[in-house]
């Protein structure tokens, strides 16, 4: 974390300097008449987007929520490793790691062949594969996650806060104008002017308003899907039990009573149970069964015999139907090539699924992490509005994969065990499927297709472990200036900047004339350089493209004074030198990034990474023309 660039300020460095002329947010202050971006809904998707946009006070952002306050309990709780990598970019990953439950092992329980009415542990699987990510898979109360995003927003230059008690009830788009063409009708949902309506004009609207999304309906989006005709209950409880694995994630299948999923939660005492309750007829809803808390507890005790649970307090509970659905378009234009999108949907507004795979909240946040930097680029005039078409293209593909995988997982989890599985003659299907799904459930299986934002991978052989289209896979390095061990990926912040990581070839120590030195000099001075072309007068040289270098030597074998000026830029109001751009291999045994990520040691390479941490391009260190052409296709 870097601060004091624009002068010393005491206090919490997470609290940014407040921007002038920001909106007054008192109780009696009027709502704005026009905004750049209006976000409907303060769930994880909406808050993830708002936290990004809040860092840009020149972009007027408004986020609405029909509830009167933030939630305090319940809802989703699983955060995969990919989302934790994203949290690092927002600056609160360490806080999350300290507070939360880490899922290290998943235990599987099935009927005991010697006594099928009792369950028996049949296996354990490491929940996060080695070197799949430097981050853990964690469980956290969704309300606490909201608080962390809200804190980022409050500490931002714009001091962004939600407008609670308002909901979107309709919108129209005027395609004949570029001046705030979306007119949004909002209704007072909880305030003293109950039912009163207002209109707000926006340049862009993002519907993060759940499965019954008014924004989706306003643009003609329809959720298509199916139901599994299965009722489940979920409860967060404080309880005592003789079940030995209660502090491990557990998937439990009984012979005749159904299934239970146990998820320990933060704090050491609370845990969540998903409990299978009853099959449903076609068209029947779980709500019609009138299940109670007692029904869930009784079913859980039947399923986990010979063990039992003594519930002391139920923190939160709900009954739900298993279903999977997806909308046919994520924006208001779909396949219409005559105009660019103005309205988007994200999260449950465009895809819903069973909670048990633990992907919904993660995919929802990744939706808006994908969209946020694109909105910033377009609203700042750095990219053409056609860039926004890539949101639907990229995220619709991933949503379909989510629904397909979740559908298969739900089917297998609810299927009865076979005789061979119970007798230990074959590995249970649920364990096999769990192992196959590890990359997917970790969030690291996402691979974006070739587009203006993703190269074909012509030079992929130069960095085999950083596949184009996938998220940049971090690895250990040492920072040259202060010999600090760290993860290279942790230099990236949620700040809408691109990254170029230049990996030096064999023997390159950045002496004048070396490949790294030539690249840095070209980036800094040549008229065809994307840094020169896309950085505006008066901006820091790394305002749009952040250039970093990694060397094969250890820190004591390199001379900082030999580094090119682009790796020691002077930025900010005071023109202070940045000492955190140069890295080398870790010398204390955590791993060699060149070996771990398949970087060609002889020639080195460049890895170009998008603002949402996905690899856009791999290039040789002298691939100047290709680098310039790539950025020219994205940036103005």
Structural notes for this entry:
This protein is α+β, with helices and mostly antiparallel strands and 636 residues long. It has 15 helices and 27 strands. The strands form five sheets. Strands 6-5-13-14-15-12-16-18 form an eight-stranded mixed β-sheet, sandwiched between helices. A hairpin with a 2-residue loop joins strand 5 (105-112) and strand 6 (115-126). It is globular and about 75 Å long. The model has no long low-confidence stretch (mean pLDDT 93).
Compile the SSE list and pairings.
Blueprint (H helix, E strand, L loop, with lengths): L33 E7 L3 H10 L7 E5 L12 E2 L1 H10 L2 H7 L1 E2 L2 E8 L2 E12 L11 E2 L2 H14 L7 E2 L1 E8 L8 E7 L8 E11 L6 H5 L4 E19 L7 E5 L5 E6 L5 E10 L13 H11 L5 E19 L15 E3 L5 E2 L7 H20 L9 H26 L4 H4 L6 H8 L1 H4 L34 E4 L4 E4 L10 E6 L11 H11 L4 H5 L10 E7 L18 E2 L4 E2 L4 E3 L8 H4 L8 E5 L5 E5 L4 H9 L4
Parallel strand pairs: 1-2, 1-11, 2-8, 5-13, 11-17, 21-22, 22-25
Antiparallel strand pairs: 3-7, 4-7, 5-6, 9-10, 10-11, 12-15, 12-16, 13-14, 14-15, 16-18, 19-20, 19-25, 21-26, 23-24, 26-27
Helix pairs in contact: 1-4, 1-7, 7-8
Summarize the structure.
This protein is α+β, with helices and mostly antiparallel strands and 636 residues long.
The CA-CA distance between the termini, in Å, is 29 Å
Largest sheet: 8 strands, mixed
Structural class based on helices, strands and sheet pairing: alpha+beta
Strand residue content? 25-35%
Low-pLDDT residue intervals, each spanning 5 or more residues:
none
Query: What helical percentage do the residues reach?
Result: 10-25%
| Number of helical regions | 15
- Widest sheet: strand ordering: 6-5-13-14-15-12-16-18
Q: Average pLDDT value?
A: 93
What coarse outline follows from CA principal-axis ratios? globular
Number of strands: 27
CA radius of gyration is: 26 Å
């Amino acid at each position: 974390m870097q601060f004091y660039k624009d002068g010393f300020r005491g206090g919490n460095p997470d609290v940014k300097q407040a921007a002038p002329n920001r909106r007054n947010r008192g109780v009696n202050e009027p709502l704005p008449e026009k905004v750049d971006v209006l976000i409907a809904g303060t769930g994880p998707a909406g808050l993830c987007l708002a936290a990004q946009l809040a860092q840009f006070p020149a972009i007027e952002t408004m986020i609405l929520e029909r509830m009167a306050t933030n939630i305090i309990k319940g809802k989703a709780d699983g955060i995969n490793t990919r989302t934790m990598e994203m949290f690092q970019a927002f600056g609160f990953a360490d806080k999350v790691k300290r507070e939360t439950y880490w899922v290290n092992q998943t235990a599987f329980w099935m009927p005991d062949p010697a006594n099928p009415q009792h369950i028996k542990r049949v296996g354990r699987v490491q929940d996060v594969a080695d070197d799949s990510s430097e981050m853990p898979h964690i469980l956290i109360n969704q309300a606490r996650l909201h608080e962390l995003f809200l804190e980022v927003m409050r500490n931002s230059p714009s001091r962004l806060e939600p407008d609670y008690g308002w909901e979107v009830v309709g919108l129209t788009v005027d395609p004949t104008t570029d001046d705030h063409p979306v007119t949004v009708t909002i209704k007072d949902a909880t305030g003293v002017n109950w039912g009163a309506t207002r209109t707000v004009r926006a340049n862009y609207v993002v519907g993060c308003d759940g499965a019954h999304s008014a924004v989706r309906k306003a643009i003609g989006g329809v959720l298509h899907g199916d139901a599994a005709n299965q009722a489940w209950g979920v409860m967060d409880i404080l309880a005592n039990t003789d079940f030995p694995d209660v502090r491990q994630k557990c998937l439990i299948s009984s012979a005749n009573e159904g299934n239970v999923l146990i998820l320990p939660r933060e704090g050491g005492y609370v845990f969540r149970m998903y409990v299978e309750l009853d099959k449903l007829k076609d068209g029947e809803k779980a709500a019609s069964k009138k299940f109670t808390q007692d029904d869930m507890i009784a079913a859980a005790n039947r399923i986990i015999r010979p063990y039992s649970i003594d519930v002391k307090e139920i923190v939160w509970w709900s009954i739900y139907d298993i279903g999977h659905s997806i909308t046919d378009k994520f924006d208001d234009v779909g396949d219409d090539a005559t105009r660019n999108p103005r309205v988007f949907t994200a999260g449950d507004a465009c895809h819903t699924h069973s909670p048990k795979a633990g992907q919904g909240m993660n995919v929802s946040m990744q939706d808006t992490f994908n969209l946020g930097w694109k909105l910033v680029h377009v609203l700042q005039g750095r990219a053409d509005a056609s860039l926004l078409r890539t949101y639907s293209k990229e995220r619709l593909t991933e949503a379909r994969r989510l629904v397909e995988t979740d559908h298969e997982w739900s089917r297998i989890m609810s299927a009865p065990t076979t005789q061979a599985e119970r007798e230990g003659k074959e590995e249970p299907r649920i364990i096999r499927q769990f192992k196959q799904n590890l990359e997917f459930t970790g969030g690291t299986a996402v691979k974006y297709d070739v587009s203006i934002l993703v190269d074909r991978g012509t030079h992929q052989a130069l960095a085999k472990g950083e596949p184009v289209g996938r998220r940049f896979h971090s690895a250990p390095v040492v920072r040259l200036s202060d010999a600090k061990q760290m993860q290279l990926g942790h230099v990236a912040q949620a700040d809408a900047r691109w990254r170029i990581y230049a990996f030096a070839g064999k023997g390159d120590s950045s002496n004048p004339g070396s490949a790294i030195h030539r690249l840095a000099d070209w980036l800094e001075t040549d008229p065809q350089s994307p840094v020169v072309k896309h950085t505006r007068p008066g901006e820091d040289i790394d305002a749009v493209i952040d250039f970093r270098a990694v060397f094969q030597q250890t820190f004591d074998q390199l001379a900082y004074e030999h580094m090119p000026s682009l790796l020691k830029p002077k930025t900010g109001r005071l023109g202070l030198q940045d000492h955190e751009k140069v890295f080398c291999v870790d010398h204390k045994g955590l791993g060699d990034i060149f070996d771990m990520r398949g970087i060609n040691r002889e020639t080195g390479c460049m890895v170009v990474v998008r603002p949402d941490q996905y690899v856009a391009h791999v290039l040789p260190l002298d691939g100047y023309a290709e680098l310039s052409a790539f950025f020219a296709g994205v940036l103005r």
